[in-house]
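Hi R.,

As promised on Friday, here is the backbone we talked about, encoded as structure tokens. Could you run it through your design pipeline when you get a chance and send me back a sequence?
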């Protein structure tokens, strides 16, 4: 990141033509920001396992009440586990 006032103060040859400087400054800033966003912050399949999230007391109470009545087993039985049909 290069602050614009530093560029005007310390790089006078780069900033002689203000329009061309700002065109390239905005282009480089957008491309580098997009690259950081898609390359580093948008890492695919990171944190996709939800086993490490803490369960709230309401969730545990609801799950235990469903398990007591037998509805939890029925919900797990009819739940779809695969997006595409499995061929055997």
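Update: got your reply. Pasting your designed sequence below so it's all in one thread:
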């Amino acid at each position: 990141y290069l602050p614009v006032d530093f560029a005007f103060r310390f790089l006078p040859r780069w900033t002689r033509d203000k329009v061309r400087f700002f065109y390239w400054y905005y282009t480089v800033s957008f491309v580098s920001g997009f690259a950081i966003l898609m390359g580093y912050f948008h890492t695919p399949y990171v944190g996709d396992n939800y086993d490490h999230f803490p369960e709230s007391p309401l969730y545990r109470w609801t799950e235990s009440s469903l398990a007591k009545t037998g509805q939890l087993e029925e919900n797990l039985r009819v739940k779809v586990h695969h997006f595409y049909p499995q061929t055997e």
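One thing I noticed while checking it: The chain has a mean pLDDT of 87.

Thanks again,
M.
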